[in-house]
Amino acid sequence: MSHGFLLRASNFSMLLTLLAFAICTTLAYGFESKFPLFIIAMLHIAQILLAGLFKVSYVTRLVSLKQLGRQVN
Q1: Residue ranges, the chain, pLDDT below 50
Q2: Keywords assigned by UniProt (predicted)?
């Protein structure tokens, strides 16, 4: 796998997990009266998992930037 592809995949993954996190947060806190308790609990668990996946995506982004010789910030 090339480092350029890894960078694009990491950027896309960060965007996707951020959007999914925002949706889960909106549903869990904005519409909590519309869903049963089980769904609310699953949304909160999904927030934790999505935050972890976002962090993994960020680390892979940093690794690919370093391998490409670009500035890591």
Answers
A1: none
A2: Membrane, Transmembrane, Transmembrane helix
Query: Residue 10: enclosing H or E segment and its boundaries?
Result: helix 3-25
Q: Which of 68, 66, 58, 47 lies closest to 14 in space, CA to CA?
A: 58
Would you call 63 exposed, middle or buried from its count of C-beta atoms within 10 A (0-12, 13-18, 19+)? middle
Polymer length of the chain: 73
What are the structural domain ranges in the chain? 3-68
Question: Which pLDDT does position 21 carry in this prediction?
Answer: 98
How far is CA 8 from each of CA 11, 41, 47, 54, 73, rounded to the nearest angstrom?
5, 32, 23, 14, 16
Amino acid at 60: T
DSSP-derived secondary structure letter, 28: I
Do residues 66 and 72 touch, judged by C-beta distance below 8 A?
A: yes
